[in-house]
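G.,

No rush on this.
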Amino acid sequence: MAGLVDRIKQFARSPQGRRAAEQVRVAAQDPRRRAQAQRLLGKLRKRP
């Protein structure tokens, strides 16, 4: 499992990972996207 975590850390530090993180931050600030994420989380929580 450590290998997977290391790969995730490596991706997060890469330029591509930084771009992905920035896109997520921008999307999280958008009220429509935030509502969409809340609906998705609500659906996932209701599943047994």
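When you get to it, here's the other one too:
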Amino acid sequence: MCQHRRMSNAPVLPLIQPEAAACCPPLNERPLTSEEAERTARMFKALGDPVRLRLFSAVASHEGGEACVCDISDVGVSQPTVSHHLKKLKEAGLLSSERRGTWVYYRVEPAVLAAMGALLTKAAAA
């Protein structure tokens, strides 16, 4: 855990989750439109890199569903490379971030994650 977290006495406030549009329908519902396919491919492509997948998993599994960059940086690559991969995850719509003083906190976009899960699980259950 980061040094700044241990020393902070500030209360942790709950996050308000924005409503996000679903990425696409389940694969067995109808063919994806060109736009849906592009958006979905960006998400899966972002998760196709092992370092990005580890970073995404670290954020998703972190207590409270958000993590300071200092809590998730130990993935075997340099800090600039971590920043690059986090940027790619944000661009794909999988993470959002918020700067708090000198630290950046990342959180998983739950609506997008749920939509990606539904894309595959509803199709697999059919």
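The longest helix spans residues 110-125. DSSP finds six helices and three strands in the chain.

Enjoy the weekend,
O.
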